Structure formats: structure tokens, C-alpha cells
Amino acid sequence: MNKSTHITLAEGKKIYFASDNHLGAPTSDASKPREKKFVAWLDEIKHDAAAIFLLGDLFDFWFEYKTVVPKGFTRTLGKLAEISDSGIPIHYFVGNHDLWMHGYFEEELGIPVYHKPKEFMFNDTSVFIGHGDGLGPNDKGYKRMKKVFTNPVFKWLFKWMHPDIGLRIGQYLSVKNKMISGDDDATFLGEENEWLAVYCKRKLEDKHRDYFVFGHRHLPLEIDLNEKSKYVNLGDWIQYYTYGVFDGENFDLKKY
Fold this sequence. Notes:
The protein is α/β, with parallel strands linked by helices. It has one domain: Purple Acid Phosphatase, chain A, domain 2. Helices cover 32% and strands 21% of the residues. The protein contains eight helices and twelve strands. The protein has helices at residues 28-45, 74-85, 104-109, 140-149, 152-159, 163-176, 178-181, 195-204; strands at residues 5-7, 14-18, 49-54, 90-93, 113-114, 118-122, 125-129, 211-214, 220-224, 230-234, 242-246, 251-255.
């Protein structure tokens, strides 16, 4: 695991978190009101944001060819570019719907992209951050599928497919396949059965972290792991419109 990255918050500044927008689902037109709402939120938080963390599945399907990216999402990409250009750092963790990010966000938007969870220090508070897919004792079906999706041979073959065909297949699977979409497990399982909470408790055996922040589950959750550590799941921008905010001392889930 990489060493933690330190971010110092000036007085009055905050760090914001969002996850699981699934823009483009179930159709581009149907998701556009959700996209406009998300862009309005970005426009509000830019005034006091020290940094913004997007924890994956911003798009319902995303695949980067060498010279082609999926059509659409102009409002979101433009707003992210504006915020990044203004000097506010944005950090992106890939999810299971956008595994195939390979340079576009970094080169075009100046946004670093992480393919694995990473620890950050916000002032003196340690926060372990990731999308959450494939972690913990369960999610076995997806773990097998992820091995296929990230296989270099599979990605090479998919890149040779015409983008109109490849993107259509990817979008269809993203919407229809419950294993990919995560719709089949978007219910609270109880603290002892929440596999990301189990994963966090195991990580605490090696090292203390004040907060563990994930997406993927599509549920806004706050679970105390012990007296000094908490697991937070950010929910989504489909049903809940929830986001996280850290003010230098406390992490809170809020609804937009």
C-alpha cells in the first residue's frame, strides 16, 4: 500500500466526497436531470472546497480507447475541468463501472486517478479511501468478473472492437447485469454482515485509521468500528443524493 498523502485544511475549508452517479443510466436523457443536479452541487461546494474526492462509478459505463471516449457528460466534465483549473484538487477512484480509465482524466482534466484504495491524512485525521468493489469476504461473483475485465488480453480484444459496438455492449451490460450494477445488494445487511465493514475491521488490525470511506454499496451508512474509527458509505446520486464532508475535525454524511 502506498504511503498516505497529506492535505492541510485552511480554516473554513472542507473536503467533499461523492460516489455512484451512474451517469448515462438507464439512458442518457433519463440521467440528464441527475447530472444537472450533481453539477449544481459541484458549483456550490467549489467555494469552500479544499479538495474533492469522487469515489467511482461517476459513469454507468466508461471505456477509453486510444483516441475515443464515450460521448456525452459534457456538463460534468466541463465543471470538473473548471474546478481543477481553478486550483482545487480533485481525486478520482475508479469503480466497477469505470475500471478502464487510462489517462484521459489525468491528461485532459488534471485529475489523478487511483485504481486501488489509498490512505490520506487530512490535518491529523487518517482517512482510508476507495470505491469498495471486490473488497472483504464476499462479492465473490464480481471478483471473478473483475479478473476477466482487467485481463490485458480481454482489454486488448475490446479495444479492437469498433467503439460504436463496444460502447453499446458495455452500456447494455452495465444496465442489465445485476452483478455489475450492484442493484441486487443495495439493502442493509446488518453490521456483522456488511462485508466492507468486515474489511475495515480487518484493516484496523494492522493500523489505526480514523475513517474508512467507500462507495459501491449505494447506501448511505455510518458504522462505528470501535470507539475511535468509523466506516462511512457515501450512498449514491440516483436515489439518495448523499455526499460526505470533512470540516477538519468531523466527517458527516449530508443530503443534497
